[in-house]
């Protein structure tokens, strides 16, 4: 079989603007690595530019670039008809991103926090060029560089572009340099014999996430204004109380010495020592304030939470009234999960009304779906793969509720009796089920009894060490294979760290400790199943006209939850297909464990929304009762 030729390409565009992550294409540079000559074509020759773009995505070549999902996004903004071809490239594994490859190599080596040379790696092209090629890129910094001014060259023939000024490269030289240096890195990366497991999946997920970012999300001006007024009044009340107590000065700045003194006093009143940092300073984190039992310090904790929403999220919510908010996704953290920023859509405040400010566009509704106990399903698969059997997997495959199964052990009841009482509204069983969520979500990561005490506080539950020890033992009694699982992790870890090779996917992560190693197994597997689903969901939304999802647009991803905007006219059918694709994607990594996904429709992002259906079984748009 003939080896595919490799082409490297890069685009230069207008600047990214609020609501516009795929700005206008000004020029494109490309290079076939077997020929070595880089070429540039500008938009002053539109037929030639289109022909080059069509050739690059034709499927005849391996296509390489740095942050290549952005470049593809620019291409489809200019030529929407190229979208199917780009999806086909990803589906066939014909895309290579130098940044993703480099980051996965660092994850496998355990060097993401610090390399052996003492450097904390970054993944911009200039950083890779400096680190891998031992070269410095020109024209990357400064107020008057061409990187920021390609809009000035819109429609101007390339031969009329300015030349370099002796200090910085000219616009043609700068653009060509990006592709030439990327090509040198590609040659080095492709020369390595070893394949990096799941890298093709990471590439396709990066494309799906970038499309989410490009579509973005809008906010409701009325809800934003109401939230701003409410938070302002709350903050004003907090400040008045804290100034009266001497913890905030007249200029609005915290008096940290007074805060530390108050923390010390509060903990002494409880017969405990105030928590301190490694340097011996009294801690003043929200966790410490929340545990102080001092009403004033609890007010200070509330002040901090509200101030964060006001300072971090309100400015973004205001922007969403005018333009789309475009969260940026990172396809990989060490575990294989994703992360988000600007804003961090994956960690919005649960309280305070921030989520409710996000509202579907006219003619659309929000379609949301998440997996049922996804990480426990993934853990069960790992247990079967490593140990050959799992009580957790048996319960899941029997369709049983793991939280009720755990609650039954805690209450010394059979599963059948626990379920019967729960369905009858038994408060004791309901409370035990809530406690079981803490156990099921916290203990698989290897928490000790002391760690469980701390973890429970995040759920608003205080338990002492003796109770935490008892509950942990009962949990291990419910799922006895977990003792062997923890021993398996411990054997790999020894007294330090180890390199984890995932038993299902082969994903490699270096420099893993005991807790990271225990969490890694199910966190990574869940993320992998989600990414398989994510690509197929995106493809059907954008290019599969036969799918009920066609015309819907994914805009948010939160670990095991997908958020789409779907046309109202066929949103119920879209929801059914979304559930099917989510299950199919997860099934690729969970061959021995049943999983399910549950979808619902809502006009804006409500955490308490429920799935409701009419008499024909069609999913309806849920509305809160207070509206």
List strands and helices in order, with pairings.
Blueprint: E1 5-13, E2 25-32, E3 38-42, H1 46-56, E4 61-65, H2 68-78, H3 83-91, E5 95-97, H4 98-109, H5 125-133, H6 171-191, H7 199-215, H8 221-244, H9 256-269, H10 286-290, H11 295-322, E6 328-330, E7 339-341, E8 364-371, H12 374-387, H13 391-397, H14 402-411, H15 415-423, H16 427-442, H17 449-457, H18 465-478, H19 481-493, E9 498-501, E10 508-512, H20 514-542, E11 553-557, E12 561-567, H21 571-587, E13 597-602, E14 612-613, E15 619-620
How would you portray this structure in words?
This protein starts with a strand and ends in a 7-residue tail after the last strand. The protein contains 21 helices and 15 strands. The protein is of the alpha+beta class. The protein folds into three domains: 192 residues, Nucleotidyltransferase, domain 5; 103 residues; 150 residues, no CATH class. The protein is globular, with a radius of gyration of 27 Å. The strands form five sheets. A five-stranded mixed β-sheet has the order 3-2-1-4-5, with helices on both faces. A four-stranded antiparallel β-sheet has the order 11-12-8-13. Strands 6-7 form a two-stranded antiparallel ribbon. Helix content is 48%, strand content 12%.
């Amino acid at each position: 079989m003939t080896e595919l030729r490799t082409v490297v390409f890069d685009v230069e565009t207008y600047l990214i603007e609020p609501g516009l992550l795929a700005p206008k294409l000004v020029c494109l540079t490309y290079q076939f690595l077997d020929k070595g000559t880089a070429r540039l074509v500008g938009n002053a020759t539109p037929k030639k530019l289109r022909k080059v773009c069509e050739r690059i995505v034709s499927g005849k070549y391996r296509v390489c670039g740095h942050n290549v999902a952005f470049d593809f996004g620019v291409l489809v903004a200019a030529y929407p008809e190229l979208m199917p071809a780009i999806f086909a490239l990803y589906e066939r594994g014909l895309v290579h991103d130098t940044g993703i490859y480099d980051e996965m190599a660092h994850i496998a080596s355990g060097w993401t926090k610090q390399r052996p040379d003492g450097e904390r790696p970054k993944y911009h092209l200039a950083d890779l060029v400096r680190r891998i090629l031992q070269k410095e890129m020109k024209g990357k910094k400064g107020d008057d560089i061409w990187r920021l001014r390609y809009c000035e060259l819109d429609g101007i023939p390339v031969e009329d572009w300015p030349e370099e000024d002796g200090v910085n490269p000219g616009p043609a030289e700068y653009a060509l340099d990006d592709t030439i240096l990327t090509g040198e890195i590609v040659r080095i990366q492709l020369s390595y014999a070893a394949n990096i497991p799941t890298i093709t999946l990471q590439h396709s997920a990066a494309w799906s996430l970038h499309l989410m970012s490009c579509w973005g999300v809008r906010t409701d001006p009325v809800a934003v204004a109401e939230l701003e007024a409410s938070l302002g009044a709350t903050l004003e009340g907090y400040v008045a109380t804290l100034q009266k107590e001497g913890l905030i000065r007249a200029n609005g700045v915290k008096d940290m010495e007074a805060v530390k003194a108050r923390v010390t006093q509060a903990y002494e009143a409880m017969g405990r020592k105030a928590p301190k940092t490694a340097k011996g300073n009294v801690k003043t984190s929200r966790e410490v304030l929340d545990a102080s039992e001092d009403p004033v310090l609890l007010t200070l904790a509330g002040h901090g939470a509200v101030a964060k929403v006001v300072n971090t999220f309100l400015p973004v919510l205001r922007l969403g009234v005018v333009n789309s908010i475009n969260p940026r996704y990172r396809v990989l953290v060490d575990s294989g999960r994703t992360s988000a920023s600007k804003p961090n859509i994956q960690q919005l405040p649960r309280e305070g009304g921030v989520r409710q400010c996000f509202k579907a566009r006219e003619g659309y509704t929000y379609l949301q779906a998440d997996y049922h106990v996804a990480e426990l399903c993934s853990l069960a698969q790992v247990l079967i793969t490593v140990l050959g059997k799992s009580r957790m997997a048996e319960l899941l495959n029997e369709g049983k509720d793991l939280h009720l199964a755990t609650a039954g052990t805690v209450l010394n009841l059979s599963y059948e009796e626990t379920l019967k009482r729960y369905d009858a509204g038994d408060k004791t069983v309901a409370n035990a089920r809530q406690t079981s969520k803490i156990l099921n979500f916290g203990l698989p990561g290897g928490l000790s009894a002391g760690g469980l005490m701390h973890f429970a506080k995040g759920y608003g539950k205080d338990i002492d060490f003796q109770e935490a020890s008892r509950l942990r033992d009962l949990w291990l009694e419910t799922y006895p294979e977990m003792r062997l699982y923890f021993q398996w992790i411990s054997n790999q870890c020894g007294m330090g760290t180890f390199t984890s090779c995932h038993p299902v996917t082969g994903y490699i992560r270096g420099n893993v400790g005991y807790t990271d190693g225990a969490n890694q197994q199910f966190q990574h597997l869940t993320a992998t199943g989600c990414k398989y689903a994510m690509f197929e969901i995106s493809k059907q939304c954008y290019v599969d006209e036969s799918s009920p999802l066609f015309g819907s647009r994914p805009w948010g991803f939160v670990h095991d939850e997908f958020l789409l905007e779907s046309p109202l006219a066929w949103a119920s059918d879209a929801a059914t297909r979304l559930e099917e694709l989510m299950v199919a994607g997860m099934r690729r990594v969970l061959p021995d464990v049943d999983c399910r996904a549950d979808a619902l429709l809502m006009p804006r992002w409500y955490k308490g929304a429920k799935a409701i259906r009419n008499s024909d079984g069609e999913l309806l748009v849920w509305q809160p009762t207070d509206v």
